[in-house]
Amino acid sequence: MLLWILVALGFAIIAGLTWYATSLQLQLKQQKEAEKAQKEDAQQKVVDRNKNIAQSVDTIVAAMLEGQCDYSEGSIRLCVLLDHMQLDGEKKARDMYPEMHAFYDKIKHMPTHKQRAELSKKERMKQDVERLKYEAQSQPVIEEKELPAIKQLMTQYL
Description:
mainly alpha
């Protein structure tokens, strides 16, 4: 009789442990599925964000190539947008478009909008001359090499 009680108790313990292991496996499966869904959602957000940025970049590049946007303003906007874009692999926009980023680094300290309006006319003129000098140095490389390369890169994201 005692043997049957011990066997029944053993089966009860085994059944309980089996139930517990199964419930843990189900929880793990649900957790993995939720994690996978979150990862896919995050990837889709990156794709959508890159597409929005690529559309803006493409518009700015076209405006620069058509002369509707000066190189200073366009370079500032492009550098900021490209630096916020998550490019494929280990690519960095700063390394891919060095001339435009060098130009950006030379002019990014210059005030714009309201801050520029608050400057004296002499100071604004001085900054304009400095900016135009840098622009004249960088524009040929940016226009001939980097803008077409940027336009080509954006086709991957559009």
